[in-house]
Amino acid sequence: MPSIGVFALQGDVREHLQTLTALGADAFPVRRPAELARCDGLVLPGGESTTMAKLARTFELLEPLRSRVREGMPTFGTCAGMILLADRIEGGTADQETIGGLDVTVRRNAFGRQVDSFEADLAFAGLADPVHAVFIRAPWVERTGPGVEVLAEAQGHPVAVRQGRLMATSFHPEVEGDGRVHRVFLDLVAG
Ligand SMILES: NC(=O)CC[C@H](N)C(=O)O
């Protein structure tokens, strides 16, 4: 049973814990470096990315997170979690820190005011049936580096990507999801 941490200083932690537990993972919240150290894989939930980065710095988790991701820990970011994994951000504050590792540029709040939040059924690479995707003030991926695979798109923009053992979605598969996207991540963890 893989040990999967969910970054828990801010964000929709409980939904991820429930989904991962239902899939048979040993899922637990991560608030300190000792908890991070026992993760086989990590989920960065949705929430508010600037707040999450600031709290990570305050609780001395930011540098440990950066090293674990650099060392190849499988990591899955959803929405704000995608922003935290991105190497470059557009539409953020100038001093916004990220964990980084994913060679993409993401645009925060990209879908704009009109469609602040919306839902869509999206084709997802490797899955037979469309995934029901809930978007809440979501980013999209503006540019991808050469090693990045696009797994899903919405309105012509990448909204799910994978690079090696890193995976990110603009939407919230932990909300009204059926577990299949988390299963894709657990398969990555299993290697
Ligand atoms: N639902 C979400 O995670 C929203 C992300 C948020 N707009 C941010 O920039 O961090």
From TrEMBL:
Organism domain of life: Bacteria
Active site: 79 (nucleophile), 172 (charge relay system), 174 (charge relay system)
SUPFAM superfamilies xrefs: Class I glutamine amidotransferase-like
Keyword hit for Lyase: yes
EC number annotated for this UniProt entry: 4.3.3.6, 3.5.1.2
InterPro entries: Class_I_gatase-like, PdxT/SNO, PdxT/SNO_CS
An annotated GO cellular component: cytosol
Function: Catalyzes the hydrolysis of glutamine to glutamate and ammonia as part of the biosynthesis of pyridoxal 5'-phosphate. The resulting ammonia molecule is channeled to the active site of PdxS.
Protein name: Pyridoxal 5'-phosphate synthase subunit PdxT
Organism in which the protein naturally occurs: Nocardioides albidus
